Amino acid sequence: MKSITPRSRCPISFSLDILGDKWILLILRDMIFAGKSSYNEFLQSAEKIATNILADRLNILESQKLVEKVVASDKRSKFTYILTEKSITLIPVILELSIWGLSNFPPETDPDLIIALESDREETIKKYKELARKRAEQQRKSSQAVL
């Protein structure tokens, strides 16, 4: 497992040590909003992450306990990545980054998400947290059925 050595005791610095890499946030985005969970699904994202970078970032996410790596339910030689509660707590942060991006750059975001965030931010955050927890639980159950 890849470890991260904090540069200082500052909580912002520590958060950036883990989340400051754009690929980490994009992988989490894909898991939270697109329901992606496999290596090949991540490779299909519009940003076209390189395979070596994807493997490295998934290792970081796993070592920091932001994702759990389990055997895929459809094939024993394949793995699925599941959001952990630790990563689910990042949903409000990721949504706030989305809101900031929408306010300052041309949007290419789901218009329904924009409307939901504008009308009831707290309920939208709650919805995505519940959806992420439900998806993670389903993935864990299907992975355990394979074993």
Automatic annotation (TrEMBL):
Entry keyword annotation includes Phosphoprotein: no
PROSITE patterns per UniProt: HTH_HXLR
SUPFAM superfamilies: Winged helix' DNA-binding domain
Pfam families attached to this UniProt entry: HxlR
Record key words, sorted: Coiled coil, DNA-binding, Transcription, Transcription regulation
Boundaries of every HTH hxlR-type domain copy: 10-109
Tagged with keyword Transit peptide: no
Coiled-coil boundaries: 114-141
Protein name per the record: Helix-turn-helix transcriptional regulator
Organism: Mucilaginibacter aquariorum
Lineage: Bacteria, Pseudomonadati, Bacteroidota, Sphingobacteriia, Sphingobacteriales
